[in-house]
Amino acid sequence: MRSSVKTAAILAVIMAGVGGYYWWATQLNNNQLTGTIEIDGSSTVFPITQAVAEEFWNAYSAVQVNVGVSGTGGGFKRFTAGETDISDASRPIKDSEAELAQKNGVEYVELRVALDGVAVVVNRGNAWVDYLTVEELKLIWEPGSAVDTWDDVRPGWPTQPLRLYGPGTDSGTFDYFTAEIVGEEGASRPDFTASEDDNILVQGISGDQYSLGYFGYAYYAENTDKLKIVPVDSGGGPVTPSDSTINGGQYTPLSRPLFIYVNAESLGRPEVKAFLVFYMENAIDLVSEVGYTPLPEDVYLGNLDLIN
């Protein structure tokens, strides 16, 4: 279990009186705070929210926090129906989803929690791929792609089948990748192994020398002994995703913000508010711990204003 973590800079401001969040949180009796918090959505955001849930349990063990992984789209289906308190999302809510929420009387607050780079990965035994261009990635993944073997991508590469792995169609990462690489959200060749569970994709790629796939960077960071990262060249030379290249905007076009969406009615429950205050107080440390790039401190302080 992780040790309790606090971001000193944020706490210093909070304790100085910004909204009184720290004072409010510390007045809650840990034994009296009870209830269940339902969370679902993005597999990309899952490691962050799960890490927060584990640390929160250390302080508020009588509160049950259920964190599901049905993909961003699957999470929004439940969230807009009023079935969950918080929805993890690796993309902003779509207009159609926002309209459904309004129809069902679900008001919500959007909170940015981290930055992510979509990692393009191959098997550790792949000795020929040093980088891929955006054009090559499009050639591989676009609908009707004629790429069947590695040498279809670049002459001189093996004449071996190229087997693909990627997020399922309910995934926000699928939406984002297809929009940025193929040029149209949701447009993709269908003949790939798909899953909303990124751990399944890791297992598939790590066991297949001629595989290629993509998912959130944190899943690569947790499996560097099993996977090889592929730098992406969008026109200025190959760039490998890292905290500095993601935050600095060099890793294009596959850098993006990550979100949680909070049911406004749920905010009226003390256990949900306590969880969110805890989330923002500890986000910088926990986001880094699970392999993503934290946002500036003032973003988390702004989030505290939004949920107060």
Helix and strand run: HHEHEHEHEEHEHEHEHEEEHEHH
- SS elements, strand count: 12
CATH H-tier superfamily of the largest domain:
Periplasmic binding protein-like II
At the fold tier of CATH, the topology name of the largest domain is D-Maltodextrin-Binding Protein, domain 2
Number of helices: 12
Low-pLDDT segments, ≥5 res: 1-27
Structural class: alpha/beta
Oligomer description: single chain
Radius of gyration: 20 Å
Q: Count up the domains.
A: 2
Biggest sheet overview: 9 strands, mixed
What is the overall pLDDT average?
90
- What fraction, in percent, of the residue positions are helical? 25-40%
Distance between the termini: 29 Å
Q: Sum up the overall morphology in one term.
A: elongated
Query: Approximately what portion of the residues adopt beta-strand conformation?
Result: 15-25%
CATH class of the largest domain: Alpha Beta
CATH architecture of the largest domain: 3-Layer(aba) Sandwich
How would you explain this protein's 3D organization?
The protein has 308 residues and is of the alpha/beta class. The chain has two domains: 8-115 and 257-307, Periplasmic binding protein-like II (D-Maltodextrin-Binding Protein, domain 2); 116-255, Periplasmic binding protein-like II (D-Maltodextrin-Binding Protein, domain 2, 3-Layer(aba) Sandwich). Helix content is 38%, strand content 20%. The protein is built from twelve helices and twelve strands. The protein has helices spanning 8-15, 21-27, 46-59, 71-80, 95-103, 134-141, 172-182, 198-206, 217-221, 243-247, 270-289, 297-307, and strands spanning 35-41, 63-67, 86-89, 108-123, 132-133, 163-166, 193-194, 211-216, 227-229, 232-233, 238-239, 255-263. The strands form two sheets. Strands 1, 2, 3, 4, 6, 7, 8, 9 and 12 form a nine-stranded mixed sheet that branches. Strands 5-10-11 form a three-stranded mixed sheet. Helix 7 links the parallel strand 6 and strand 7. Helix 3 (46-59) crosses helix 11, helix 4 runs parallel beside helix 5 (95-103) and helix 11 runs antiparallel to helix 12 (297-307). The two termini are 29 Å apart.
